[in-house]
Amino acid sequence: MIERGRQEGWLRRPIDTLPTWANFHGVKFGNVSIGPLPGFEDRGSTVIAARELQGGTAEPLLVVPQDLIISRANIELFSRSDRHLREVLEAIGDFGRTTRGAVLTFLLMQATICCPEIKNIGVLKPLTEYIKFLPDELLPTFWSEEEQDLLQGTTLRPAVRAKLSSLLREFELLRTATESIDWCVKYWWDAENGLLTFDDWMRVDAMYRSRALEFPGAGDCMMPCIDMANHASGEATAALYETDEDGNGLLLLRNGRTISDKGEITITYGDDKGACESIFSYGFLENNTTSAKVMFLDLDIPDDDPLRPAKLFISTVAPGLRIFDKDGSVDWESDYIWLIVVNEEDGLDFKVSQTIDGKREIQAFWKEKELDDTSKMKEYLQEDPAWDVFQLRATVLLQNRVEEQIEAIQATPNSTHEMTVREIPRRLAEQLRRLELEMLQRATSALDNQKTNLLESKTVLAYLGMNSDEDADPEEVDFS
């Protein structure tokens, strides 16, 4: 429905008509305009200075009325006067009460209202027109199989697959929940004439994911016009966004910043986001990107661990590892790994108890102390005399996991479909592979240094003396 609407023109408006829409609905422009940056028309639209601007002035660059914000609170208000929107939100239950579920449903309803083949469904709103100005975003969920193959070994490949699976589950939830609503059956799900497809759900997800901003006082939302601003990190960020006492959205030039006439006014989408997340959510990398910044790797409990089933059952933390830049080096953190590296001999124990209603449950204990939250495992281990030994086990395990990822990323990606791969996915995949490989190699060096230092620990040396011959080489001891 949305793709066809773009092609046929009823779901697309030229960006040069946006000021007319904005002014008519109360958006105030403070010497800025929205459109392509002169000389960079291929980058799409952005916020541009209409004259030289100085930071620190009282006048906002943009003021967006509170009732134009696409937020969960506003969507709840809209649904009170739009029974069709309300029917769908109520039908999808708890998902419709989340910000994501409410916003995606709202966007889908606006596209439905725009469709010329659908009559008397929904209530026309100013925001119904706004989605016509939103461009299609080439996020990795829209990459072809051949293009996704180029992500082999990167952290983006499993993230895209997991996202597509999640989107499919949401779409099936929408379908199942609304198949009893007559107008949904007629216009969305009819076997011959139904207009809604999984591709439509992917498109509203891309609209939201690439434009959602966390506004003080409004939470995660889409802020018309302000969400046209492009991203720049650090000192390159030109403007800030916030809400005023009435809940209106504001775009403010940073103090001390000067923007030349026809210059671009940028905001930050989040300076701490890594290269993987930037491509995943926004479909681009900054030109000056020199580091992957942060990576998430999955971890698994070895199959030969006799406590594996119990550990999996009681785990309350994400089964992964975070590697990140810190003070010019690479560091790591993981709550999950501390559950992996301990065993029964160390003091980890499990007991089966029976609840009042007769059900059986597993309880975990660390040296007689109940472990009701596995995120506390590290705290307990830090208090243990064998803490250095546990650290060494974790370091060795992480070294193996990082080396495994390096081997995967160095493997030659599938190149049998070069002619069908578009330039943007090819370039982004190559950049990501290079950045993540460099971070993994730096992580290997950092972990090797940690291991060397730990092997000098008196605790570790004593542990080695108890479990090996005096002349044994510490490097040869298996700590897994």
Automatic annotation (TrEMBL):
Q: Which SUPFAM superfamilies match?
A: SET domain
Q: Which domain of life is it from?
A: Eukaryota
User: Which GO terms fall under molecular function for this chain's record?
Assistant: protein-lysine N-methyltransferase activity
Name residues in a coiled coil.
none
InterPro entries referenced in this protein's UniProt entry, alphabetically: SET_dom_sf, SETD3_SETD6_MTase
Quote a single Gene Ontology cellular component term. Answer: nucleus
Tell me the protein's name.
Answer: SET domain-containing protein
Tell me the classification of the organism that encodes this protein.
Eukaryota, Fungi, Dikarya, Ascomycota, Pezizomycotina
